[in-house]
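Standup notes
- HV: blocked on the assembly model, inputs below
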Amino acid sequence: MRYFIILLIHLSLFAQSYDFEELKFISAVSTEFKKSGNISIEENKTVITYNKPSFKQIVKDSENVSIEGSSGKIYKLKGKAKYFTQQFIDIMTRLGDFNEIKSNRDFDVKKEKSVYYLTFLEEISSQIKSAEVRIESSKVLSFKMFLPNEDTIEIIKK
Amino acid sequence: MKYINLFIFISLLTIYLFFSSNIKFSTNFLDIFLSNNSIKLFDIAKKFGLSNEILIAKKGFNKKSLDDLYEISNKLEELPEISELAISFNVSKNMKEYLKKNYYLLAEFDDKKLSKKDILHKLKNIHEQIYDSVIYEPINSYDPLDLFSTISSSSERYFKLKNYGYVLKAKTIVNTSNANESKIIYNKIHQVLNNYENIIVFAPFFYLVENSSFIKNDAQLIMFISSILLLILYFLILKNVKLFLNTILVITSSILSAILLTSLIFDEISILALVFGISISTISIDYMFHYYFHGKFKERKFIIQKSVIYGFLTTFGVLMIFSLINIELFKQLAIFSAISLLIAYLLFSWTFIYLDISSLNIVEKNINLKKINPIYIIIASFLMLVFVYNNLNFDNNLKNLDYQNEKLINLSDKFKKDFHNNKYQSFIISAKSKEKLLQKYEEYELLYPEVLGIGKYLYSSKKCNEKLEKLRTYDFNEIKNYINDSAKEVGFNDIFKNAYVGIEELKCNMSYQKDMKFKIIEEDNIYYTMAFTDKKYNIKNTKNLQTIDLGKSLSKDTESMKNTLIEYILVSTVFIILILFIIAKSNILYPLSYMIFPISTVLFVISLLGDINIMHMFALVILLAIGIDYGIYMYKTSNKEKTKLAIRYALISTFSGFGVLVFSSTVALHSIGLVITVGIISIFFLLYTSL
């Protein structure tokens, strides 16, 4: 029993989950796309489940990124698609956690009132230029990523 | 004169200490076994830094693993021996600019003709993907038609060891073939890593550090056993301290003389030649025992005993033959041993007469065994040799001689399989100029299409101009017009305004950048680059292309070394037979049996146990030298019992000296010990059974 409790405590230290709304602006078509879902973060696995407008699940583990649609068909991402998605999920995981934002080797941070302005460094900067993270009572409310091609992705925690 | 040996020893030691700074010992074992061509090739390969790589993996693909590796990286960065550190795939700012500038030239170009309809279809697909895709993937507004494709870069940001965790790659600037330098950085790295859990680390030079340490401990144990046996022999059996101390002084003096004189001939003395040379030097104890048991020290004049002179001259002659060999190690070994034996022979024949060494009071028990005619011994030897000829194989894998470090072997396999994919073989291309080097690379690229190397970043002028011509003949203006029209029709804004811009103005001015992933190095006006290709290709070595496979090169060079060694052993055998014929004429079989029987018995035993290796062969040369002496002593003796006694103690002394190596768990040392021990047993057999 004691080991079971330790195991539960251990698992709960790594496991995090929250519902979110995603606003994705694609400059090439000047359109904003809205989706909602849930992100679940475990030690070696992250699962993003979109409920609206349709069911889609992205699972990132230590090796692969796979996508499951409403039909139940699963396919694994490869090449650039895999690389980009891995990076976005990693960044989403970090930006959703206030402790990660205060200091991180991947970005410089400036704070103005309740907004943290992040400027990404090195390799990531070619994928994500900057981000704005809104905080209240040491908790992340939302974050918005600014991409080099003027696209933006905003995640609002529910 | 009582202290003459001490005086000679101190004089030689003083000279040695005075010149010690000029005497260099080489610990580079690879140089011993590799041919000059291979040494040069591996020296160049070293400059590409592959042997200096250190891989550190932390278990888990999580933030904690990465944090720990970044922390370790920061700590290692403080070490002066560490030159590079990387956890992720990073391209320098300079290289980014270079790649951007030459993108259209370096990327693979698909020049198929596209109609307006094709382009409309392609852009519609992109548009649909934006609306349908669950993942975000930015649009390539510079090349929306995917006309250009670059070499497949990794789809991972961080280095990963499959099924284990993230990896930190480090490089060291130390000379990794030097055990002492390697040990320093090995200890520093482990000191840092000791503070972390679930870490594995591997570098090729770890074998050198860990195995040297193991072999050192093993050798220390063997030396301890050897010392105990020698003390028992001299103090408890012979009960003669003076004899023991003076023998040690003579042997040491002969070794010091050999070091001094050999260093005048060679720039560096191989530590292996030194070790084997010392082993051969101890054979000179035979001379001492022979004089001692025959009471020659009492005669008070330079000892001239024909059997010892013949024995010495035959061994010396064999060493002189070996001094002509074109293998550096054996040349050094032969010259070193010849000098050492000569000095020891002179000292034992001269200085011991002044020492008042007390007579021997050992009661010899007569062992009466049935005597065998030497002809039967020779026949038995030949039968064994026939068996050996049909059953004995040569093991040219030098790795089998080393201590089998299972922990490192498993780690190496894990990193090879799960980090490097174990898919590629490496080779070095050389040419007289950079341009020719690139042209050579491009020739090989046609033969081995999956080759990875400098040609991915840099073209020869010829290839660059051909590529430029190909781009110029393609109608990009028409394509751009179609894209603009189709983009509006599909519903895009002006996102593709920069597509395929600047291709018309492209020029061939690529140049080598120091931070390119693949390097070009120059040595003696020759340019080299290292490339990699799939192991499925059977690459043929040419003047300008040489594969890098240390194992294969060592096997090839060891095989060649074996063949040369056999040639010299055969020449020496003919020389010995000739000398024995001069000494014994029609009775040659008797002294000859002391040479042939031990050698064939040893080879027979080895063939029963497995394969013969290069260390067995080294030891066989030593055994040959021992056997000749005893054959001549036994044939020329005036007092067979005393000679037997002398040989018996000399054999016990030889066994105590390096026969005990048979107890070593290091294959190389065990091999030497096995040959000497089986050789000694077979000589004992001859002593008591041969007519």
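- HV (later): unblocked. The mean pLDDT of chain A is 82. Residues 2-157 of chain A form a domain with the outer membrane lipoprotein receptor (LolB), chain A fold (CATH 2.50.20.10).
- Next: hand off to the docking folks.
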